[in-house]
Amino acid sequence: MTTGGKGWLSCRQVLNIMVIFGFMLNYALRVNFTIAIVVMAKTLKNLTNGGAALDDGFGNETSTALASVASTTEQSVISEEDKFEWDAYQQNLMLGSFFWGYVLTELPGGRLAEIIGGRRVFGYSMLFASVLTLLTPIAAYTNYIAVVILRAVLGFFLGASWPAIHPLTAVWIPPMDRSKFIANMMASSLGAAITMPICGYLIATIGWQSVFYFTGGLALVWSVMWFLVVFETPAEHPRISAEERNEIETAIGASVKAKKPTYVPWKSILTSPPVWAIILTHGASVFGFFTVVNQLPTYMKYILNFNIKENGLLSSLPYFGKYAMAVISSHLADHLRKNGTLSTTATRKIFTAFAVMTPGFLMIVQVYMGENRSWAVGIFTLALFLNGAVTAGYLGNGLDIAPNFSGTIFGMANTLSSFGGFVSAYMVGVLTNDNQTYGQWQIVFWILAIIYIVGSTAYLIMGTGELQPWNNPPERGVNNRETEEGVPLNQQGQNNKPISASS
């Protein structure tokens, strides 16, 4: 396989493949400890048998991982000497520490990618995270505090990786193809669906340490490959063909004069209705996703006397379904935009309503039909499936309205939405603590419905696909300047010369 435009794969196709595997591994590095701790801690068995569930502080229960690996770890090779005397407090501390770092670097990571390039930020984030993952067993044998620190630093690096993709998209992917590329981020769902059973098998046959060596090793190999085959811009790629480079730069507009903004127009961003449309909708969507995924097992157990996590395939279906919807809807959205059937604004609003508002109406149906096992499972699964269409809606909208600051916008949205899991877990806990009744869960469904519908309505009112005037702000002291998409931040005027056929 070559990575040039004249080989088997174009440079953009190589980039697509690397991003897909990158996000799969990104999620694997995030959840591997959540899975392994099931058998690492001596006290966990007693806790789970008693009906208790660990929570990482953001709604991601260890009971989710436990159910996924339980069937493969019943005859595990792990000896008692390889387990740790961690109590529930220590385990929750280790699980939650990941998000201490994660929420701190979403916004800085997006801004840094705009300045030095998404390839560097995403690549180095994954490289350092893979090394930390390989060191996890050593940290575990040292002290649980060492694990707390390591997981916090791991979150610090992985938090910067997500918003870094948007600035990379802005310089590599033509505007009419960006929905399809952003759908690659949903490969994290594939990572979730695949990581759990694989890690369960490794734990049962080799030991919990193998989980970290396997995921960390794969991520390390991926990181090396990333820097070998991915480059910041088409102009910097040594193996790209003149045809592919011209095609990309002509579509993006990189051949016109442009200067990178030297500052962030924070006042314009923070007072922009389209930006807040993205933030509010993103928050509503993530809040609903966290609530459905993390609280569904509890609802099934206490209300329907059926634990959906007992069926490994059923557990994975929502993740596979969400990714499938992301790919299908993104291809359709870009097709509709490219042939002029729908404007970018109309496309983003239609798919956002489909992905976020429709699950809200499904939650209303759940209020009245949720006591029926078949209806409950079907509604929850359908809601997660439809939510995958966010890639054709608001998820890449920052690239439409302000490609120069798309990383900053996504960082803002993801920082706030990262608290969605914590808030949802707290909400369900308050409403159902010692009161696991269908009536209390109906309140949960109503809250979900309202949040989904209000969030998507905000986008329908304030959202747009039009380039914003503050995307290329005037230099300080300059009153008038032409607004253009230009080259997102990490590409300067040196790449603006015409390209000859021999370049």
Structural class: mainly alpha
Indicate the radius of gyration in whole angstroms.
23 Å
DSSP, total strands: 0
Strand content: under 5%
User: How large is the count of helical segments?
Assistant: 21
Report the top-level CATH class of the largest domain. Answer: Mainly Alpha
Helix content: 55-70%
Q: Quick check: average pLDDT?
A: 83
**Unreliable segments of 5+ consecutive residues:** 1-5, 44-59, 70-75, 480-503
- Straight-line N-to-C gap: 21 Å
As for the CATH topology of the largest domain, it is Growth Hormone, Chain: A
General shape:
globular
Going by CATH, the architecture of the largest domain would be Up-down Bundle
Q: Give, in order, the helices and strands.
A: HHHHHHHHHHHHHHHHHHHHH
Number of domains: 2
Full CATH superfamily name of the largest domain: MFS general substrate transporter like domains
Main beta sheet: none
